[in-house]
Design brief:
Strand content: under 5%
Order of helices and strands: HHHHHHEEH
Number of helices: 7
Oligomer: single chain
Number of strands: 2
């Protein structure tokens, strides 16, 4: 019974995302990534342009900087998992306009889609260089999901402070 519930949840997760259970770990990671991607893009689109410079306190990132930071990080994490050099960086520090930041975020997710779409459990166990160490490729993609949700949580707070309902709470 102890193993039945987690196995059932992984199987249901795989079925919900229309994938086989041949790769339950990478399938689960991709499902979480897909949810994060949707919420982050919707949040970036939802915040009005004039609020992209908004900072709840002076010592933290603006909403726009958060969007740029997530885009930069997506490129960094996913390029590492793919064993490639990041195709771009510096978005957080170079972009300020909503349209440019939303586009950069979408581009980063499009790049990451390649990593998540081609990942299997076997490929995920392969070690790749990440910072100054070697880590499993799937672990890097998991780290990306955690990082995405960390900053989605920041964005939720910014949206709420501006009287907006975050995407993950719409329809409730």
């Amino acid at each position: 019974m102890r193993f039945l519930i987690p196995t059932l949840l992984l199987t249901l997760s795989a079925c919900a995302f229309g994938q086989s259970t041949d790769n339950p770990l990478s399938t689960s990671t991709k499902g979480l990534y897909t949810m994060a991607k949707g919420n982050l893009v919707k949040a970036a689109e939802k915040m009005p342009e004039e609020q992209y410079a908004y900072k709840p306190t002076p010592d933290i990132r603006s909403f726009g900087q958060l969007v740029g930071h997530v885009a930069d990080a997506n490129f960094m994490f996913c390029s590492a998992a793919l064993g490639e050099k990041a195709p771009t960086s510096g978005i957080e520090k170079s972009q300020t306009k909503k349209a440019d930041l939303v586009q950069a975020l979408q581009d980063s997710f499009k790049y990451c889609d390649k990593a998540y779409d081609t990942m299997t459990d076997a490929k995920g166990a392969a070690k790749v260089k990440f910072f100054n160490s070697e880590r499993p490729a799937l672990g890097i993609l998991d780290f990306n999901v955690v990082h995405d949700y960390e900053h989605y949580g920041n964005m939720v707070t910014y949206l709420r402070l501006k009287g907006l309902v975050p995407p993950s709470s719409e329809g409730r």
